[in-house]
């Protein structure tokens, strides 16, 4: 029998050559790990950018869009008032389509907040405050009847009109401006946190604020803590007086 050659021996043994060095195997594994880490890092960067853009959209751009919408609606209300200060329906007539008046809270900052009917996202996302129609119907101050003028607005995004609600303290003024009357309230109670399902804070007689008798109250509600909607922040005020609007729309002393 002829002796087998080296090539025949390799074919018969089923190997293609000497074993791969351990250092080469470790190098190949290291490159795979490096590529995996690189891909994972790029995914994290992309996710971070997407999250950052979402935050910018939620906390800045929605404010820009909402403020534009609110300003447009507010201009319409004031134009209507200027053209017909009393209105065909007599003193206190309201334009409920564009807004019923303006809320002024010096403790939260300068400027006014347009108030419209309803507290749905569709209403509040326009950068306004809305008065409750459900689950407890709000009592409008213009009706002259006792009750609770209860309002809601966003604390973050979409105008964030109640962002600084935590700055309101007992004794601070809250003023509601209509076509022909200034309604001046005085803050008497603050509830920093309560369940978002607690509708008792909206009652005509808000007993959770310490009141036991009917009166003319105002309630401001919004989400808390900041940047969440887990709980509700509540501020209560009581009407102390009214002032008729003069030809120059001179604000009451609390706003000067």
TrEMBL record:
Region of interest (Disordered), residue spans: 1-27
Annotated GO MF terms: hydrolase activity
Parts of the chain that traverse the membrane: 32-60
Family matches, as InterPro entries: Sortase, Sortase_Class_E, Sortase_dom-sf, Sortase_E
Record keywords, A-Z: Hydrolase, Membrane, Transmembrane, Transmembrane helix
Superkingdom to which the source organism belongs: Bacteria
Composition bias type Basic and acidic residues, residue spans: 1-12
UniProt-annotated catalytic positions: 154, 223
Keyword Hydrolase: yes
Pfam families noted in UniProt: Sortase
NCBIfam families recorded: class_E_sortase (NF033747), sortase_fam (TIGR01076)
Record-given protein name: Class E sortase
Originating species: Streptomyces rochei
Taxonomic classification: Bacteria, Bacillati, Actinomycetota, Actinomycetes, Kitasatosporales
